[in-house]
Amino acid sequence: MGMRRLCGALRAVLAGLLSALSLGAAAEVAVTDQAGRRVVLSQPAQRIVLTDTSDFITLALIDDRPAQRLVAWNRWRLDADTLGALREADPAFDDILQLSVDDPNNFPLERVIALKPDLVVLHPRFMAVGRLIRQLEAAGIGVVVLRLTPSFRSERPLDGLQQLGVLIGRSEQTDAYMAFFQERLERIRSRAATVQRRPVVLLEPHAGSAACCSSVGSGESIGDLVTIAGGRHIGEEVLPGMFGQLSLEYVLDQDPEVYIGAGGAYLAERGGLVLGVNTTPAAAQASLGRVLQRKGMSGMRAVEDGRTHGIWFPLTGGLSIVALEAVAKWVLPDLYADIDPQATMDEINSRFLATPLRGTFWTNGPGQPAGFVVPGRSNR
Fold it and tell me: What is the Cα–Cα distance from 140 to 222, expressed in whole angstroms?
């Protein structure tokens, strides 16, 4: 009898060990990041650091309590109004270390290590500082290189977000958002493929903060909105990088049919385009009017035809499927007549975002009706 009891006890212990091993294996998560590195965590990350300004809103699409999971976040360039809205929605937001890193070389390594995060999510631009990864890993911190905002020219535009979902144990939520996103992206891609002549577009980031006109180069996310929608933005042909200045002579020679400025509350003191969570529609339209009064802009076909528009810069990050629909409506209004960016934003707020974002996120120039309408055409 004693031997039978002993054997039974041993079997119970063995079963417990096997169960524990099984649970441990199930808890382990692994991905190959966008730098080709194999990243393995012993369990889904609970304490993470984000290094791109758009990443908090992106995380909130797949995590209903993003502020609970974050220990530090790079909030560079996000305006005080948006920060206030996020803080009001979740008091835990105040516990997050608010970094302001405008250059990878300024990364506050010691402050981040002291927080003892499970995972640091590095935007690919931080790869320029190769020693940063080595130093974080030497401190026992998991490091993954991911771009969380959509990359529209990629076959897998939400690859970074999908991998983050794995690493934080939110794959089901991520898959739901990816399906929502992909359906809307394919609708625009399929129609854009039928376009015979691409309308000429001037897309100006940080609109009105300097003389006319800045723009973006080829392959950059905000410019891709125009390209994917079926337009041709004039910066991509002459600017080699993310951001640069176009001469007024070049802009007028290209004679853009559509003008789209991007801005936010951070431009208020610089006389630029102001949109955002606390901006009224009237104030947004008035700010676009000031942007259009700069030297030389009155001679642009887009201004004469009343095809001038503004969009909230943060909308071009994690919520860029909404921005893409808005840009598509402005560039080719007849082709995308049935698409409703406001309805898409409303569904994101109700189904996905932990903190619903509401405000004035787009506008039209003075004298133009609100919303998305088919504008008049000139005879030029």
Answer: 36
- Enter the DSSP assignment of 124: G
CA 271 from chain centre, in angstroms, equals 24
Give me the sign of the Cα torsion angle 181, 326, 53, 283.
negative
pLDDT digits (tens, 9 = 90+) for 62-99: 998 899 999 999 887 778 888 888 887 788 888 899 88
Q: What residues pair up with 163 in beta bridges, in sequence order?
A: none
Q: What is the pTM of this model?
A: 0.88
Structural domain for 255, as ranges = 197-364
- Rg for the chain, CA atoms, rounded: 24
Predicted confidence (pLDDT) at residue 19 exceeds the cutoff of 70: no
80 and 214 co-located in one domain: no
Residue 223 confidence (pLDDT): 87
Q: Residue 105 has what pLDDT?
A: 85
293 CB-near residues (< 8 Å, 6+ apart): none
Burial class (CB in 10 A: 0-12, 13-18, 19+), 180: middle
Domain check: are 146 and 252 in the same one? Answer: no
Is 258 domain-assigned?
yes
Same domain, 36 and 150: yes
Domain count, the chain: 2
